Structures are given as C-alpha cells and as structure tokens.
Amino acid sequence: MTGRGRGGAGKRGGKGGAGKGGSAKSGGKGSSLHVSVQRTPTIRLKRKKGRTNSQQRWLQRQLNDPFVIEARRRGLRSRAAFKLMELNERFDLLKPGARVVDLGAAPGGWSQVSADIVGPKGSIVGIDLLPIDPIEGVVFIEGDFLDPEAPDHLMRELGGAADLVLSDMAASSSGHAGTDHLKIIALAETAFYFATTVLTPGGAFVAKVLQGGTEQGLRTLLQKHFTKVVHAKPEASRKESAEQYVVAIGFRVV
Ligand SMILES: C[S@@+](CC[C@H](N)C(=O)[O-])C[C@H]1O[C@@H](n2cnc3c(N)ncnc32)[C@H](O)[C@@H]1O
After folding, report:
1. CB 198 near ligand 1, within 6 Å
2. Is 39 helix (H, G, I), strand (E, B) or coil?
3. How far is the CA of 151 from the centre of ligand 1 (A)?
4. What is the pTM of this model?
C-alpha cells in the first residue's frame, strides 16, 4: 500500500487547484455545488470500425449524459460527484471543519465535493485501488481498503475521529447481478464495521449498495448504531441501475 496519492499531495499540499484536478469550479451564481443540470439535445455518434456494440452504446450514453456534461463543465472528476451533492443537500452530511473518510475515492469526485465544503479546517482521507491525482486538502492512499493495515493507515492520516465515512466502493462488474450484489454488500459491511471504530458520536455513514435482497440485512445492522437509516437513489444514479445509497445519521456507540 503506498503512503500517499500520486504526486505525494499532503494535507492541503499538492497542486490540485481548480481546473484540471482540484476543487469543483464555480458554476456561476451562488454555490458551485448546486445539483441542477441542463438537458441537451441528443448527439448521435457515428459508427467506427473496430468499436464493439457495447463500446458504441457506452460512448453514446456518455456523450448525451447531462451529468457527464455538467461535471466536465464544472471541472468535477466524476458524474458521481452529483450523487454526493444531492445526498448532502437532503441529509446535511458535510460541514465546514469536518473530518471525512472517502472509501473508493477514485477518480476523486466525492473528495472534490467534500473538500469544497469542509474547507481548510477540515480533513479528508481517501483510499482507492487506483491512483488519484492530488486534490488540495485531501490525503489519498493508494491501496486496498480490505487490506488489514488499511483501517489504521486511514485513521493515522485523519488525525482524529471522523464526522462522516463515505463508501462509493464498487468492485468491477462480473456481469452476474447476484455476484455483484454480494460483493458490493460485503464492501459496504466492511466499511460499516470500520465506521463504527472511527466515527464520533453523532457522525454519519453513507455506502453504495445494490438492490437485491441482502441490503436489508445491512440496514438492520445500521439501525442498531444510528438514529436514522434510509435508502436513497440520487438523480444522478442511473434509473436502470440497481444502485442506491444507504444513509445512516446519528452514530451512537452501543
Ligand atoms: C464508483 S467508483 C468511485 C467514484 C468516486 N466516488 C468519485 O466520485 O470519483 C468506485 C471505486 O471503488 C474502488 N474500489 C473498489 N474496491 C475497492 C477496495 N477494496 N479498496 C479500495 N477501493 C476500492 C474502485 O477502484 C473504484 O475506483
């Protein structure tokens, strides 16, 4: 497991300013983190030799996805950033000065959103299997969250109890819905057990899950430790996908 993200960005270090890498660019009037996106006319992509049908469909979808277009316009690294923005608007998760853990952070969209809100007095530590370009104010660990050393490493970098643990972790798709569902629930459960060791009383936990049955077991587990537990599907989460997020607020030590 490497110590820090590519480029060695330390806390508030690195070159991740706005633009290519850093924080979300202002979308004009008011908050740069507002979630409304504009619908644009459909772009039809010409067929190209050597491109498979599924590549063609993926490209076509990307070109016409309003969240992809808006993310690019605002300098956000992922369309997923809009999911956290919406969850934050609904559940008031991120606060100035907060300590945040971002599990499955690459390419860094959720960290960008978090860094914008927690500000210079906050602390964010992200981990991913993939390298992540630096973002000012975020420490990235390149490694496997399931590695037994990962929890201690994350806690050391965070420098205190967390106010929020986020998990957008997803293993690459196996093509078999049942297997993917079990894998993602296992990641979410591991993230939950980690959260119980690092969260401050009153803290919050968010994890990506897939609908498919066993997410109810995780919900029951969470209900023992949090005052409020809900499932939410942000607008940026594709309708055809089984993806949703479990949001747990008001951590209590039991
Ligand atoms: C949907 S992406 C996260 C997107 C991110 N929230 C953003 O806004 O940019 C899911 C990430 O989970 C990571 N991941 C999956 N399993 C992991 C593990 N065991 N440890 C660390 N990261 C993991 C993947 O590498 C992938 O980058």
Report:
1. no
2. coil
3. 16
4. 0.84
| DSSP line for 225-246 | HEEEEEEE--TTS-TTS-EEEE
The string of pLDDT tens digits covering residues 123-154 is: 999 999 999 999 999 999 999 999 999 999 99
Q: Is the pLDDT of residue 114 over 90?
A: yes
**Domains in the chain, ordered, with CATH?**
81-251 (3.40.50.150)
Report long-range pairs for 32-35 (Cβ below 8 Å, ≥24 apart): 32/74, 32/116, 33/85, 33/88, 33/113, 33/116, 33/117, 34/85, 35/82, 35/85, 35/86, 35/89, 35/235, 35/236
Q: What percent of the chain has pLDDT over 70?
A: 78
Position 104 confidence tier, pLDDT thresholds 50, 70, 90: very high
Compute the distance from residue 144 Cα to the ligand 1 centre, in Å: 10
